[in-house]
Amino acid sequence: MAMWRSTIRRGVALSVIPLSGALIAALPATAAPSGPDVSSWQHTDSRLIDWFAVKRAGYDFAMVKATEGLSYINPYFIPDSVLMRAAGLARGTYHYARPDLPPEPQAALYAAVVLGQNGPLDLPPVLDLETTGGLGPDALIDWTRRYLTTVRALTGRVPIIYTYPAFWRSAMADTTEFSDHPLWIADYRDNPHPEVPGGWAAWTFWQTTDSGRIPGIAGPTDLNVYSGAQGDFAAFANMTSRRSSAGHGR
After folding, report:
1. Facing residues of 116 across strands?
2. For residues 57 and 59, what is the distance between their CA atoms, to the nearest angstrom?
3. In whole angstroms, what is the distance from residue 137 CA to residue 169 CA?
4. 6 burial class (0-12, 13-18, 19+ CB within 10 angstroms)?
C-alpha cells in the first residue's frame, strides 16, 4: 500500500500488539478485530485470494484497493469484494491519492467503482494519502479537503484517512483540520501503540506490518487492527444492517 516502507522498521507482531490504556478500555473482552489490506500485489501469478480461508483464520475485515488517480481500477477489486463478502468479512475500500491530479474526478471515479459504501459489511471509504504530487502543505491540505468533501457527498459517510506519521507531520504540516475523520495509521516501529499526528485523539485502524502471513493469501500482506475508537465494530462496518434485514426475504 505504501511507497515509503523501506524507511520504516518492521517487526510488530499482530498477535502481541499492546494497546494504550485509554483504548484498552474501549475494546471488547475478545481479541480486537483485525484483517489484511490487499491490492493486485497479493494476487501472485493472478491467483485469487481464498477469503474463506482468511475468515477461518480468525480475521474480521479486509481493506482492498479500488482505484488510483484518474484512471486506474484494481483488476481484482470485484472478485475480492464479492468473495470477501461471501466469506463474511467486512469490506473496506481505498483510493490511492494522486495529488498532482484534481481531487473531484478522483473522488467520483472511486465512488462509481465502489458503488457507495452503505451496504451490509461496508466500512467507510478510505483515502490513502502518502504522496504529495509536488504540492506544498497548503495546497495539499486544500486538495485533501476537496477530495474528502466530494467523497462524503457521494457516499454519505465520513471517510477514513490512511497515512503515516512522518508524512502527515511534514507534507501536511501536522494540520489538525481533519481530526474529525477516523484515522488509519501506518507505523511499523516497535512501540506499544502507534504515533498519532494531526491532533487526532485516537487511531481507528493501525497498520502494524507489511510482511504478515495469512492463510489464503500468497506472499506477504499488510496487517491491521481495529482500536474500538469508533465504537462497536459491527455497527461501524454496517454488520448490524445485515442482521436486521436477514429475515425479510429480499
Report:
1. none
2. 6
3. 10
4. exposed
Instruction: Give the three-state DSSP class for 139.
Output: helix
Residue 204 reports pLDDT greater than 90 = yes
Is 9 in contact with 214 (CB distance < 8 Å)? no
pTM score, two decimals?
Answer: 0.86
Q: What is the pLDDT of residues 133-151, one digit of tens each?
A: 999 999 999 999 999 999 9
DSSP-derived 3-state class of residue 106: helix
**pLDDT average, residue stretch 124-132:** 98
pLDDT number for residue 11: 31
What is the number of other CB atoms lying within 10 angstroms of the CB of residue 108? 14
Beta carbons of 114 and 125 less than 8 angstroms apart: yes
Percent of the chain with pLDDT strictly greater than 70: 84
157 burial type by CB count under 10 A (0-12 exposed, 13-18 middle, 19+ buried) = middle
Q: Which of 232, 102, 101, 92 is nearest to 162 (CA)?
A: 92
